[in-house]
Amino acid sequence: MKKLTWVLGVVLAVALTVGLTSGPATAYRPESRATFNVPKPWGRTVSNYTIVRSIEKAIDNTRPTKRHPRPRIHISTYLMDRSISTAKLIAACRRGVSVRVILDEEIASRPSRRLMAVLNADNVRDRNDDGKADTKPKRGPCDTKLKKKKDKKKDKKGDAKRDGKKDGKKKDGKQKAGKKKSAKDKRAVQRKRKPGPGRPSVKWGKDLSYAKKCEGSCRGVGGNMHSKFFLFSRTGKAQQVVMVSSSNLNRGGALLGWNDMYTIVGRKKSYDEYVRIHRRMTDDVRAGVKKVQFKDGPYVSRFFPMRDANRRNDPTMVDLRKVDCRVGKQRTALHVSMFFWKGVRGNYIASRLLDLAREGCRVNIIYGAPSLQIAERLRNAARARLINLYDSRWDMNGDGVNEVRVHSKYILIKGKYGSQKKTVRVLTGSQNWVAGSLSRGDETTLNIARGKAYKQYIAHWNRVKSHSRRLPYNW
User: Fold this and answer.
1) I want to staple 392 with a disulfide (CB 3.0 to 4.6 A). Which of 136, 152, 292, 468 is the partner?
2) pLDDT digit string, tens, across residues 103-116
């Protein structure tokens, strides 16, 4: 009886161990939804890092399978100083995942340097882009040791076989008939040499991975690489996962800023387009004059820079011109959460919001880092009871510097928008309201026409408001 009890105990322990170790990897399935963090001092570590850990969980669950032997991760992030994220990306590379990361040139943290050293360890040069490496890799895939090639042992039988087939002759001495390559075959060979938008480059090495810094922006002149999106060909049980965020993979974004992220799952069109833009960023393909925009169901994605952009064709202004403030007795409501806001662009967007307020819209704004001029202008509008204004900034240690503030960049619309009398919209992404974010820097915005997304974002806006100060202070 004791022996039977002992055996049952061992079986139960093994079952529990297997369940704990293999369960999350097989059951994980991200959903199309919004994710938000809560900075200090209001959130604990778990809620501080909600967004970052959501990305890291997707990294952990990206694994090769028989059906998907080479899954891919594409990342574009402005800042990266989190060693845990770096370790997880390196681990993904070493288990056979192709990891492709683009960083801003000003990143100089130890974790980012380590990531670049590992992912670029077996990268090689191909100056003429003929698909053939000009040099041999100095290290193995994902910074592993190079395997020494074993010398082939020659044996008499092998020599005899080679001698018999020398000069392409058969045993009877007759020449083998050579198959002439057609023009179609030659073109196929040429296409194979030159990597297309979806084809990996020989430069990336056998691990098909790299980490790159763009000089200024990747697709613009000057500016910064400021996009924040995270792509997974397959993670857990989900395929074609796109995450668009205001947050970087860094400590400051988790602890000191209110951020948001929206995840799109199973939308092949969206996934393919984000991968295409990532590749163009990798290859430093300059953006054209027209905006890059595409619609996929309830989602509209835009990629910047947009050369020759101005007040008339600025996509944010185009969106705001679609807002109609009154439908009968109802008034359209706008809720804004904006981090960086200044200059000519900041002013004409502010003017449009104030015009909408005068037309009868309910305009509610939380700001994080406006210029002094924009802040004064908005405060005057609040003083006149035209808008509801909130300041998210807090100086927690009394050193004269605001440590905590809103870092998200979104507008929420409920009411009449375009031809729809009663609808909701979420307009989010990485783009601040400054000129460089429009015409020079790499940026991504995402418009969402889903009621569920609006409910999630308006709940977040109200939570941030509860930790902000109503302006002006003399009310």
Assistant:
1) 468
2) 999 888 999 999 99
